Give the backbone structure.
Amino acid sequence: MARQKAVVKKLQTVESDGKIVVNSGFGIENAFRINMHKALLGSNIPVPESVIVSTAEAGESVFDQLPGKGYWIKRGDFHAIHKEDVTFVSNPREGKEMLREYALRDISDVLISQHLVGDLVKFYGVLGSDFFFWFYPYEHNHHKYVDYEQINGKSLHHPFDQAELLKVASASATALGIDIYGGDAIVGKDGSFHVIDLNDWPSFAPCRQEAAAPIAAVIFQKFTQTAS
């Protein structure tokens, strides 16, 4: 697992020279926030309505482009490293102030997404295998920023098509070019869902024993197929 930009570039260099890298360095870069949004949107993956803006130029009016109440501002150039890299604001005035904070942190571009009401579900998967695991993270005290539950609300267990979630999660990982992945989705009361995040090499914390063999098998397959 490597996410520092300099390391990712080195991985891409050795991959371009014909070496096998899992996950691909190019896939890791595709998982950076704005890159991810563009890739998922381009592959018809259901994602929240969003806009990409410059922190130096955006004002309150940019929020008028998004429906609903409340917005998520996310740094565009990388994954979330700190809690402040993904911030909820309840109105455009708060949003404008937060954009100033991002600019002061030298974050030039952000992704602003509509706030979706529904159940937060977290999932893990391994492309090329039957392994797929999902759960409600707030109910298992498994979320990086637990105070987000106050914003999202408690899980109401809206029914949804689990097979369809697997299908969309796999398509999302394929769109980014990562084999071993995890992500988050919001399930609405009508059973629809939207992918809000996708990561390479997640923790697999609640299912490491179950995931270990499929991960090893996929890596072994990739290396042996190349060798042959």
Residues 49-115 form a domain with the Dna Ligase; domain 1 fold (CATH 3.30.1490.20). Residues 152 and 212 are 31 Å apart (CA to CA). The chain has two domains: 1-46+116-228, 49-115. The two ends are 26 Å apart (CA to CA).
